[in-house]
Specification:
alpha/beta, 7-stranded mixed β-sheet, two-stranded antiparallel sheet, 13 helices, 9 strands, binds S-adenosylmethionine
């Protein structure tokens, strides 16, 4: 989606999309579920303590990660990145830091590109899934999975050649914001690269010196089966469910969902 997270996900919706997007997802959770957040998570995601996921899609996504992480992982596995996005990232570097790693859509690709990778992810259930995948992967032990947030990265100054976030960073403070971008740049060494994959809010990033690259070609969400396509589209993209049923296919073109595909990167090479 023109990425994660609720705000990001909301940003991916076209103007024609429903006025209150994400109704199906929001319906899954209630205020009673907010107790799942740790103290540090609550400070960021319900700072006034009075959020309602039925009204707030960003909050509903955060609850999804914690209450139904396998459901989220099924969606992320189907929403594959454009292969040229991964190919564009620096290769053969020593140290990579990824923030908001989730269940590893990008992390698993980074194993081939760096010697030492740190995957920062705040949601414990997602970290568990990521660790499970890494344990089964060749060279998965190159990746260290740690808890942390954009605005307070548990990493030292200049400790990475590449600092990257995929479908996770937005200008909203709870998903990065000014403090989060400053933290990513702090952790990146001089001459290194900070990359935001599947960015939202390109103008906001451009104002902060980020350039942009996008790769062409049609892209689809590749569900495992037609039945999975219907099940997940009904939850995450209900506006397209009738059309997905009519087509009867497991692959769902991004155009049909009216969101931009994961084909682009905003990046900054820090001065040496
Ligand atoms: C849509 S998921 C993307 C996960 C993964 N990067 C991918 O592409 O599949 C957004 C991720 O950002 C993480 N996230 C949300 N707020 C965050 C924050 N303040 N700091 C770091 N990560 C955050 C979420 O826990 C979630 O894993």
């Amino acid at each position: 989606m023109t990425k994660p997270e609720a705000a990001a996900k909301a940003g991916r919706e076209s103007p024609e999309a429903s006025v209150r997007p994400g109704a199906e997802l929001r319906r899954r959770y209630t205020t009673a579920d907010l107790g799942v957040f740790t103290r540090d998570e609550a400070i960021r995601f319900v700072p006034r303590g009075d959020g309602d996921p039925q009204d707030d899609m960003v909050l509903a996504w955060e609850l999804l990660y914690r209450l139904e992480p396998e459901l989220y992982d099924r969606l992320a596995r189907a929403e594959r990145l454009h292969p040229r996005v991964v190919g564009w990232l620096p290769c053969g570097v020593n140290r990579i830091a990824e923030v908001g790693a989730g269940t590893g859509r990008l992390t698993m690709e980074l194993i081939e590109r760096g010697q030492h990778i740190v995957a920062v992810e705040p949601a414990l259930p997602l970290r568990r899934i990521l660790r499970r995948k890494l344990a089964a992967a060749e060279d998965g032990d190159r990746v260290r999975v740690v808890s942390g947030f954009f605005d307070q990265l548990p990493l030292t100054d200049g400790s990475a050649d590449l600092v990257v976030a995929c479908s996770a960073f937005t200008p909203a403070p709870e998903h990065g914001g000014e403090a989060g971008l400053a933290e990513m740049e702090r952790v990146c060494r001089p001459g290194g690269c900070v990359a935001i994959i599947w960015p939202n809010h390109l103008d906001w990033l451009a104002e902060r010196g980020y350039r942009y690259v996008s790769f062409p070609g049609s892209m689809s969400i590749e569900f495992d089966s037609y039945h999975e396509a219907v099940e997940l589209v009904e939850i995450f993209y209900p506006q397209a469910a009738d059309e997905v049923r009519r087509r009867g296919r497991r692959a769902v073109p991004f155009e049909l969902l009216r969101i931009n595909p994961p084909r682009d990167v905003a990046f900054k090479v820090l001065s040496a």
